[in-house]
Specification:
39% helix, Rossmann fold, 391 residues, 2 domains, globular
Length: 391
Amino acid sequence: MRQRYLQNLITEDALKSNKMAFISGPRQVGKSTLAKGLLQVPQQYFNWDSTGFRKKWVKDPEIAIGNEMQGIIVLDEIHKDRRWKQRLKGLYDMRGNSLHILVTGSARLDFYRKGGDSLMGRYIPYRLHPFSVGETTTPHSPDECESFLKGPAPYSWDDLVQYSGFPEPFMQASVSKAARWSRLRLERLVQEDVRDFRAVDDIQAVKVLVDLLPERVGSLLSMNSLREDVGVAYATIRDWIQVLEVLYHCFLIRPYVGKLNRMVRAERKLYLFDSLQISSIPKRLENLTALHLLKACHFWTDTAQGEFDLHFLRTKDKAEVDFCITRDKKPWMLVECKSNSRTLSPTLIKFQAQLKTQHNFQLVTEKNYLKYYSDKRIHVGSYEKILGALI
């Protein structure tokens, strides 16, 4: 298995600081493999789904991991324990000087930390994403983006479009096997992860909701429309979408408003972590772009290089730029997805002039294309060239 972009960082950042590392991310993105790769002793990996470990853990975490163990240990999926925070806090306070604790989970651990954060100051959170075209073991800083535009991308954009960036289908490089993997992964997420997270009376309705989401990718999300199609209450749809967010099935981005006039304020746009669920190629390209940008935002934020957030821009007159990254609450990067049009987007020009963003990109499908319009401060280039300059 190839070394992932977070591997060295976790050692140099969290473990050297004697803090726990929390590694979260979508199901089958490679969290356990990454964590196991840091182990010196393979036997120091513990999984909540193991009945023997689970029984010992709920009685006494110290006994569960063994009193003699030292160095790095991995606790996989322990967020499924309703009292995991309290038990983990006790273990860290008692054994933190001799143990380096990695906690991995296929759900947002920040969600589980709410409601009395007894672990404050004891951990550093990291979010692991699928492979991207620019992933390396030594990711660069946000200020280095444009200097990497002319270099070759480590991974193929076409491969990501066909197989997604999840390790198993990406490495197998088979369209049919990737489709099967995506279907089985989705079934397990609905049947197991959703049920583990929350009691759901109508799992068939959740399946209907999940089936409807791919066609909503990149559009303003209407909860009312989903409510009508699924046939459940508005509050139920809202809660189920939140569950799917927590479980890294989808993510929602909010509009950026700032001091701009006549902007959409309330509606959000939805994207999926598994792009193979999306049959429309234009929507899949936009979704993969959103994944690349979100990965960069999460990495730069998690590594204390600033606070980065992903938004979009849309006026009430439907003038829109697909993505806007803010850095420490200020607009910093604009990204517009196009197909074959090299002509500069008038909306991108307009918002760049208003917001004075430092980085501005228009993405086109033409391979190896890259051109800079210095008067507008806009790069027009291929998806692979521009997104390869990120994380």
